[in-house]
Amino acid sequence: MRRVRGRDEGIHVLLRRLLASRRSVRLFSSRPIRVDDLLFVLWSGYGCVDKYCRRRTSPSAGATYPIELYAAIRRGGVEGLGAGVYLYDGRRDLRLVRGMDVSRSLYEACLRQRWVLDAPVNIIVAARPWRTTRWYGAERGMRYVYMEAGHVGQNIYLAAAALGLGTVAVGAFYDDMVSEIMGFGGEVAPLYVMPLGYPRVKRR
Ligand SMILES: Cc1cc2nc3c(=O)[nH]c(=O)nc-3n(C[C@H](O)[C@H](O)[C@H](O)COP(=O)(O)O)c2cc1C
């Protein structure tokens, strides 16, 4: 592929800086997140890039798109949005699916990792595996689903870093507890819990 030159010469320099600045953040301030910033992070993770949402910001095996993104918002966590669990539609819509603050229950389900409790928002990367396994079979299909969660997680990391926010990919949790808290039922599997917020500088 030909290297982009001219006006776009600087993009790879910016990308390099962004990639190098990405770090897992586990100390969060209580400062609320702007709703536009939350939407940007979600869009970067798994947003639609065309009119009919046939393609998204993350690659998907056979364009089967098994991933779903949820935002569990603490009370006062996002300016102008109430506490609750919201399903992201890939554009700008957040549909309320549970109208309560679940951050303490998520914290318990994530083996009491403090950052899950402190963050104003927890993004839950979940999947409807059958969308992929019906084409590729159970074993290969699940492998692809896990790979896709990784792509989405990295995009979320990078978008957070670009906005001066922080996140950490939490994989250690009780699946059944997270599913119950989120109201998932049997068809949706939680894969990552990603606390999101402004980093807090540790006092000496
Ligand atoms: C699959 C996976 C699971 C992870 N699970 C956790 C976790 O449960 N808790 C946590 O604090 N960090 C978790 N992490 C974050 C790693 O600890 C972190 O990426 C690693 O220490 C490297 O640091 P960096 O992300 O700042 O480069 C996980 C990362 C991955 C990729």
Topology (SSEs and partners):
Elements: H1 11-21, H2 35-46, E1 67-73, E2 84-88, E3 94-98, H3 103-109, H4 114-118, E4 121-127, H5 130-136, H6 138-162, E5 166-167, H7 175-182, E6 189-197
Antiparallel strand pairs: 1-2, 1-4, 2-3, 4-6, 5-6
Helix pairs in contact: 2-6, 5-6
The structure holds flavin mononucleotide.
Task: Explain what the structure shows.
This protein has 204 residues and is of the alpha+beta class. It has one domain (28-197): NADH Oxidase. It contains 7 helices and 6 strands. The protein has helices at 11-21, 35-46, 103-109, 114-118, 130-136, 138-162, 175-182; strands at 67-73, 84-88, 94-98, 121-127, 166-167, 189-197. It has a 6-stranded antiparallel sheet with strand order 3-2-1-4-6-5. Strand 2 (84-88) and strand 3 form a beta hairpin. Helix 2 (35-46) runs antiparallel to helix 6 and helix 5 (130-136) packs across helix 6 (138-162). The model has no long low-confidence stretch (mean pLDDT 95). Bound molecules: flavin mononucleotide (FMN). Residues 23-24, 26, 113, 168-172 line the site of flavin mononucleotide.
